[in-house]
Amino acid sequence: MVAVFSHTASPRLLYVLDFLSDYYGLPFRLATDPGALDAEPRARIAYTVEAGPGSLHIVPHGLLSATGTAPVETVVYDHEAGYKAFFRTGGDTGFDVFAAIFWLLSRYEEYSPHETDAYGRYAVENSLAFRAGFLKVPLVNRWLEDLRKRLVSIDPSFPAATPPLLFQPTYDIDMAWSFRGKGAWRNTGGFLRSLALGRPGDALTRIRVLLGQVPDPFDCYAWLDDLHDRYGLRPVYFFHVCAHRNRYDKSIPAHVPSVRALIRETAGKARIGLHPSWHSGDAPAALLDEKKALEEAVGQPVDLSRQHYIRFSLPGTFRQLVAAGIHADFSMGYGSCNGFRASVAAPFRWYDLERDEVTALVLHPFCFMDANAFYEQKMSPAEGLEELNEFRNEISRTGGILLTIWHNSFLGTDRSLAGWREMYERVVSCEK
User: Are 333 and 309 in contact (CB under 8 A)?
Assistant: First the structure.
């Protein structure tokens, strides 16, 4: 146990201590009695203006005893330990690491007025991580590994070993197949459109797929099953099942027998989550309809989600997920640039900043998405592999979870995405 003395027991401080307890695997207990530290023979922290004898001293910035979402000045500097930091206050750590962790995990900056990107999302360019140059770094993990060393120096029994890197593969199934399952009208329209665009090869492929002569270009499921079996992986699949079609939602609905069979078969090998549609962001009631449709296909409750196009806004989207019975969301990242949106490679609970309360919704951050690398960052498979390896190396330094997003379209046989499937297999083989 680690005893933390503070004059006040705020919800924000308790949230940070709960996160530290989960991260290190042992309890961080708050004490408001000054004598508590004297009675604690093991690791102890004085989160006070004045230092405590025999304790690690962290000087409070003030954010954790405040309320509301008023803008807070964040001046980033180069810490002597070799990382970026802000909320400089002095003490043994040099800055209020608790407040800085809270500011990043709560996504405090996203509650302030901000510019949006072309899809109406919080733009990565607004973020402190982007502007200060630490977007590609799990900065919270770095801080906590430095904190680990400081706590070990006080109490040698504190866990000294850096945890291992864990790889978590996840997949977004925006459209189960390129041609299969779409019915006569959609396939006829697609066939004529390919001819009109001067792509007779695509039209011929469509016919051959529908005749069962060649696999559908988006069909990678058996290949993925084999990959997971070989390397002992437990993936998560997020299915887009919206029946409402628009510019962004073009899925094959869950009531189509072939899609229903695919979902149920996949559920026997992996965890299944909902991929809430773009439409559900404009029509909240659609979220419940989509969740019900997926649950009927799976044959059991579904409590995982990831937003289509990583479209979410705080706090509204996450409140809707909580109300719908979603317990874990995997959307914490950017839909335009790879990196660490919350500057962490570990799960954490969502803190509703406007209500100043912790929720039961657990956020699982990702750092790499194939669509970002290809469409937004204009990378080749080799360049994408280099970026992914940089993320892996960063997380290896501190321990944490390398969570990636891949689409079945990238892992099939679509000629326009040649090389990405092979690149992904190299990634998986390196992780194991």
Answer: no
149-165 b/e (C-beta count within 10 Å ≥ 16 → b) = ebbeebbeebeeeebeb
pTM of the model: 0.93
Both tokens assigned to 135? 């977007």
Buried-state track 255-265, b at ≥16 Cβ within 10 A, e below 16: ebeebbebbee
What is the per-residue pLDDT across 45-103, written as a single tens digit (0 to 9) for each?
A: 999 998 877 889 999 999 999 999 999 999 999 999 999 999 999 999 999 999 999 99
Residues 6+ apart with CB under 8 A from 279: 242, 244, 246, 248, 249, 286
In 66-135, alpha helices (H): 97-105, 128-132
Q: What is the pLDDT of residues 241-299, one digit of tens each?
A: 998 889 999 888 888 899 999 999 999 999 999 999 999 999 999 999 999 999 999 99
Q: Can you read off the two tokens belonging to residue 119?
A: 């899809």
Structural domains of the chain sorted by starting position, each given as residue range(s) with its CATH number in brackets: 2-154 (no CATH), 165-178+216-431 (3.20.20.370)
Are residues 99 and 135 in contact, defined by beta-carbon separation less than 8 angstroms?
no
- Burial tier of 215 (Cβ tally within 10 Å: 0-12, 13-18, 19+): middle
Phi first, then psi: give them for residue 401, nearest 5 degrees.
-110, 125
Sheet holding 56-57, edge to edge: 28-31, 2-5, 44-46, 56-57
- Determine the straight-line distance between the first and last CA of the chain, rounded to whole angstroms: 33
Distance CA 38, CA 274 (A): 50
216 close to 209: Cβ distance less than 8 angstroms: yes
Length of the chain: 432
Residue 206 has pLDDT above 80, yes or no: no
